Amino acid sequence: MKTIQVKAIIVGAMLLGSSAMAGNYNFTFNNGFNNGGVVPDGSPIGLPITTNLTGMSGPISSLTMSLNVSGGYNGDLYAYLAGPNGGFAVLLNRVGVSGSATMFGYSDAGLNVTFSDAAANDIHFYQNVGGYDITSGTAAWQPDGRNLDPQSDPNLISSAPQTALLNSFAGQNPNGTWTLYLADVSSGGHSTLNSWGLDITTVPEPSALGLIGLGLGILLIHRRRC
Description:
The protein is α+β, with helices and mostly antiparallel strands. It has two domains: 1-20 and 206-226; 21-204, Sandwich (Jelly Rolls). Helix content is 18%, strand content 31%. The protein contains three helices and ten strands. The radius of gyration is 23 Å and the shape is globular.
């Protein structure tokens, strides 16, 4: 009796497990941007970029994002990512802004980074990290995450908690229209979007075959006990 029960459970679990393997989807976007990718200088209108993604199976389990911007002043930039079915992450919110001493943020021109919640350091204070890498495209940083108006008091921005991160997309359907928004909120210098990308990992819903396998296992156990 015990042998039949164990086999039934194993068969059902194997079928269910095989149907729930994670999927990984990579997308890179490097052309066709509005205004040639130029972010309007000193304007809250900004540069909205939308793209429709299809063909992915199951809800999002994790997500990272790449962003390549050249020119301008990094401390002028505000950027966010919005998902098609929920989720909102603030990628940049005037990096370096921190009270009256650095009220205009960092003056570096451009960045080429990957955003990951699991990265070791917060991009808002990247100059505080020894040997920081902001342009090679190989370094990962936590998104800024400070969900405040970029024209707020610099003290409020720098002290705000990181509440708008990439984990907000977990559990959401990844198919549909994604929006990347960039704005330059302080006059002087033009930033240009060169490319951006998404690396999305999903966990597919259990397939009908997996559910049938589990159901048969339960049925066999029930019959044996009867």
